[in-house]
Design goal:
8-stranded mixed sheet; 2,3-Dihydroxybiphenyl 1,2-Dioxygenase, domain 1; alpha/beta; about 20% helix; about 300 residues; 9-stranded mixed sheet; globular
Length: about 300
């Protein structure tokens, strides 16, 4: 039994200073403040009520919010997760904070928080960017994991995400017709590696590059084009060790398309050969052993 994920809804990041991180993010990306609650700041990037939430670091886990269809799907997800030895819990108070009808929270074996949500809020008023950044919305999230085979098995076996491509052992995972919405990258510890936002065109990616250069901010990767997804991108520092990326263009997935294997080398992450300061995109890990099946997933 697999549990269908409908949409990537939001990312929650732990920050030492959420207010300062929010101000910088609004300035850099053109996001719009949605609400503040205690030490937490919620930001909009599109029609969703919020797509990026910044909370104070002490005791706060980096978390992805993923939408499922309805309450029955949430109940089936809880059953499937318990069958894998995980500990999902319903949380009504957190659901109210996140502006969703119902919420099921669990932690992956790699240490990433996941919130499965039902009926998250859209806003009737259109998103109004704080500056003309060409923002189109939350696009994808890159994830660090110390056990990529285990996490790949979780996302494909339990949640039914499709493998789009591999770069070495890094895996790109799709849930709709976009090339990918999640990507998993080998790292010593788990968590969010990068939050990626879409913009209208290559022009806005290059404008962001020039803006960063004018402000004396380091560009960590790009501008360039990704051979796997075809996206034009630029990546730079976000809060507390997480990166932001702006992406544009990119290929769409075709029914029945087979995933491709790219080598674990910098050229597989950028076809333009742009400089890169992000360790996860420079590593060349040894080949992984055969990918394990989760309990009850696949044929015996």
């Amino acid at each position: 039994m697999t549990i269908g994920i409908e949409q990537l809804r939001y990312v929650h990041l732990a920050c030492r200073d959420p207010g300062a991180a929010a101000s910088e993010t609004i300035s850099l990306l053109g996001l719009q403040e949605a609400w503040r609650s205690g030490d937490e700041v919620a930001l909009r990037s599109d029609q969703r009520a919020a797509t990026l939430l910044l909370g104070r670091g002490a005791g706060v886990r980096q978390t992805l919010g993923l939408e499922v269809r309805d309450a029955d799907a949430l109940a089936r997800a809880a059953e499937a997760l318990r069958a894998q030895g995980l500990d999902p819990r319903r949380d009504e108070a957190l659901a109210a904070e996140r502006r969703v009808k119902a919420l099921l929270a669990f932690v992956t074996p790699g240490g990433l928080g996941i919130e499965l949500v039902v009926r998250p809020l859209h806003k009737g008023w259109r998103f109004h960017a704080s500056r003309d950044s060409g923002m189109t919305g939350l696009e994808a999230v890159a994830i660090r994991t110390p056990d990529i085979a285990r996490d790949e098995a979780l996302w494909t076996g339990v949640f039914g995400l499709r493998v789009a491509d591999w770069i070495g052992d890094a895996v790109y995972l799709g849930l709709d017709d976009a090339h990918h919405r999640l990507s998993l990258h080998p790292a010593p510890a788990g968590g969010v590696l990068a939050v990626e936002f879409g913009v209208e065109s290559c022009d806005q990616v290059m404008q962001q590059f020039y803006l960063l250069r004018e402000q004396g901010r380091p560009v960590r990767h790009g501008p360039g084009r990704r051979p796997a997804s075809g996206q034009v991108f630029v990546s730079f520092d976000g809060p507390d060790g997480v990166f932001y990326s702006l992406v544009a263009e990119g290929r769409r997935a075709s029914p029945g398309e087979r995933p491709r294997q790219f080598p674990a080398e910098p050229g597989s992450y950028c076809g333009w050969g742009s400089p890169c300061d992000i360790a996860e995109y420079l590593a060349q890990p040894a080949p992984a052993p055969e990918r394990p099946r989760l309990r009850g997933v696949g044929t015996p």
